[in-house]
Amino acid sequence: WEHYNVLYGLLIVMYVSAVPFFFALYQAFKLLSYIDKNKAFSELSVKALKNIKYCAITISLLYVPGLPFFYIAAKLEDAPGIMLIGLGIIFASTIIAVFAALLQKLLKAAIDIKSENDLTI
């Protein structure tokens, strides 16, 4: 029975983390549509990047308490690679959050420079 409880714990973590994943995917689609409409340097793009950053942080924070479930499942199934899946998801979403924050800061600085140049002309 404990085998099923561990799997249910893993499934709960995965299903709950699907919500911020798909929201971030939607925000990325919106960001691409802003780029396509030549509105890449707008506050809408900064907001989309901020939402992507928060979604990536949320996914990381959801998987950290879920790591014991990955560990127990790896012990039960005698498959240590299962633990690497959980760690890989945490690592990848943390990297995405860092890059989204970096792009957000750069885009905000570019918008500020562009607005200063528009005011001086």
The mean pLDDT is: 91
Q: For the record, give the distance between the C-alpha atoms at the N and C termini, rounded to a whole number.
A: 72 Å
Main sheet, how many strands, which sense, barrel? none
Order of helices and strands: HHHH
Q: Number of DSSP helices?
A: 4
Which band does the percent of strand residues land in? under 5%
DSSP strand tally: 0
Fraction of residues in helices? over 70%
Could you name the ranges where pLDDT drops below 50 across 5 or more consecutive residues?
Answer: none
- What gross morphology would you assign? elongated
Radius of gyration: 19 Å
How does the helix and strand content classify structurally? mainly alpha
Task: Give an overview of the whole structure.
- By secondary structure, the protein is an all-alpha fold.
- It has 4 helices and no strands.
- It has helices at residues 2-36, 43-63, 67-77, 81-120.
- Helix 1 (2-36) runs antiparallel to helix 2 (43-63) and helix 1 (2-36) crosses helix 3 (67-77).
- The longest helix has 40 residues, at 81-120.
What is the secondary structure topology, with strand pairs?
Layout: H1 2-36, H2 43-63, H3 67-77, H4 81-120
Helix pairs in contact: 1-2, 1-3, 2-4, 3-4
